[in-house]
Give the backbone structure.
Amino acid sequence: MSTATKPLLTVEHLEISCRDSEKTNPIVQDVSFQLYKGEMAALTGPSGCGKSVTAHAVVGMLEKEWIVTKGHICYKNQNITTYSEKEWQRLRREEIALLIQHSLNGLNPIRTVKKQMMETLNQRRKLPRKEAVSYLHSLLHQVGFADPAFILSSYPFELSGGMCQRILLAMMLSAKPKILIADEPTTALDVINKEKVMALLKKLQADFDLAVLLISHDQESVNRFADRVIFMEQGGVTG
Ligand SMILES: Nc1ncnc2c1ncn2[C@@H]1O[C@H](COP(=O)(O)OP(=O)(O)O)[C@@H](O)[C@H]1O
Ligand SMILES: [Mg+2]
């Protein structure tokens, strides 16, 4: 990583507040960090300090009563803090992918993987069918499936949670995002699967020249895999 190059993503003095009928309470205060092309940076800190809320703000997915009250978020030098819902949707589809535990619900258990991957791919660019299928094969290969044809013809309910997570990653990558934000991707996994997921994220970082923001409170994964660590404390970023 070179600090001479411009960051892809800049978060500056971000404050996020929760608004109820009477008052507006800041939840996250003075969060500043940058993410550069192709690097894996870890955003770490104690549980409840606001890592997930910050990630949601970056892709415009804050809940209704949550608002950015100070600071800004810039992507490729453009202030995205004031984006419309339509602009956020495009950003999420084409530029910044957010992987959360909850996103597994995004896979329909009773539709084939092929149908769902095709649909996602078609939103971004229409390819001739043969080309599209071979592109899906290569994506599934890249996330570690030896038999992509078998996976494409499967239904998510027939596959394990770990396999579905990899399919979801392949789906997200089909849109060629520049940034992948992975929020606690290894929580609830045993040691062996933790290793597998982290190794996969490192591989995808290299294969796709992706900037990865790894959100994790697992100090060991962070120290071993991240190129750089951003510490967040209750109410802000330090160091
Ligand atoms: N949906 C929500 N409603 C109310 N409070 C929330 C919600 N989500 C998170 N919070 C609060 O916001 C703060 C930051 O949470 P979060 O970003 O999830 O922390 P982290 O991901 O660092 O563990 C916490 O105090 C948490 O209790
Ligand atoms: Mg969290």
In short: The two ends are 17 Å apart (CA to CA). The mean pLDDT is 91.
